[in-house]
Amino acid sequence: MYVALWLMPIKKIAIKDFIEQASKGILLDVRSPGEYLHAQIPGAISLPVFTDDERKVVGTAYKQQGRQPAIKLGIDYWGAKMKTTIEEVEKIIAKNAEQLSEQTIYLYCWRGGMRSAAVAWLLDLYGYNVCLLTGGYKAYRTWALLQFQKKYECNIIAGYTGSGKTELLHRLAQYHLPTICLETMARHKGSAFGGFNQPPQPSQEMFENILALALHKNEEKIFFIEDESKRIGALNIPNEFWQTMRAQPVYFIEIPFDERLAYILKEYGTLNKEALQTAILRIKKRLGPQETKTAIQHLEEGNYKDCFKILLHYYDKYYLKALNNRENITLLLNKIECQTVDTISNFEKLRLCTTVNI
User: Which residue in 109, 154, 307, 338 is the catalytic one?
Assistant: First the structure.
């Protein structure tokens, strides 16, 4: 098996071409489950050669005894799984058959070494067309981080909390306009309350992987993106890209306070008091002791409106400060006055205001 691995004419692809081609076929990540769960190339399906424990044992053997003893140990673990590996790939292809434009299998492991080479040999022997990522997942991470250093042209959808910015962004996407939704990628709506009714956030590394691919796909376009602080929940927008965002045209959806308050009450007013109180205490230091005490008192009394009124004033103050911290804000800012949080009518006003053909 060791000799065969290096005799088989498996096609190896550099990261740039791999990114363009992998979406046409089946993308398989053959690293261990733990490596995959932490972060992977977006769209990849897990097909581990080793369990986490097996990977640890083989890795230790490689460091302490050398390459060949580690390969033998790896064969002991993986040899018995060859048949099930093929059967699993057959199931994956059958499940995704309608979405595939080709039946090529694209593989990667950590550095494009023995694990991906072994699976590529097996699947090639079975009759599949197989391509390996040169440099493995490590090459993708290097490529991903480089995407944040590029300059992009985009339109920033801005507005105080409760302006319906995300819904407006989704409306733009419905018209097939280039959009990037950071909150969808981060699985968080940005404020102290942004994690409610959301799945767990991805790791920072996975968030960066998803964002890098989205930026690459929109590199030659002028895309729309929602205004965000640098931090979204537990995640951070990469600094280089965040600085790029700060220099882009801003379309500020200006909606009266009471309309936004009504929108926020509709979205968060049904949440239980304990969860809301925990969120309020999370911003206690910036909100201030008196405002925190008053907001919680309103909450305990079931007076959600006055509670959220305090919170909305707080977020408005910090949002305005962040907005004005941009350089050349007077040149970048385009205000769009809207009467209420109505996605359809506000979309029409945005359409008339931007230079992009919507």
Answer: 109
